[in-house]
């Protein structure tokens, strides 16, 4: 891990996302750390879809806002290799109680069109135009449909 930070940066709100089916238990019992004593968080909804589909592997997710009063452990940058790494954090503590969590919404992962984050990565990282990002997603959408076996949707 890099850039140890004892508390979130000023103004940054820590959030956690989870598959929708985990929400009732989290609201009742709080967020429990994994076996390594880590609770994963992020700081900007711009990257929520990317985290949900590429790290949590869910199609529908709930977002929880974490009250800073509930963060008693260290907060460090998450050492992931995704372009969204600058927005991801690890909280090192056993549990964040439910009184420190607020459900802010439940969302479907966007796959049929580029998100704002997809445009940022396409333009700034790959040097594409916005039209090239659109074309890339149109092609990927057709491939997903073909893989699902519903070729009539592609035409």
Estimated helix fraction: 25-40%
Distance between the termini: 47 Å
**What value does the average pLDDT take?**
85
CATH class type of the largest domain? Alpha Beta
SSE order, as H and E? EEHEEHEEEEEHH
Q: In percent terms, what proportion of residues is strand?
A: 25-35%
Strand order of the largest sheet: 1-6-7-4
Radius of gyration: 17 Å
Number of domains: 2
CATH architecture of the largest domain: Alpha-Beta Barrel
| Low-confidence sequence ranges | 1-8
Q: Overall 3D geometry?
A: globular
Which structural class matches the secondary elements?
alpha+beta
How are the SSEs ordered, and which strands pair?
Elements: E1 2-5, E2 15-19, H1 23-29, E3 31-32, E4 38-42, H2 48-56, E5 60-66, E6 74-77, E7 88-92, E8 95-96, E9 101-108, H3 116-125, H4 130-148
Antiparallel strand pairs: 1-6, 2-5, 3-8, 4-7, 5-9, 6-7
Q: How would you summarize what this structure contains?
A:
The protein has 155 residues and is of the alpha+beta class. It has four helices and nine strands.
Task: Describe this structure as you would to a colleague.
The chain is an alpha+beta fold and about 160 residues long. It folds into 2 domains: about 110 residues, ADP-ribosylation fold (Alpha-Beta Barrel); about 40 residues. A 4-stranded antiparallel β-sheet has the order 1-6-7-4, with no helix packed on it. It is globular and about 45 Å long. The N terminus is likely disordered.
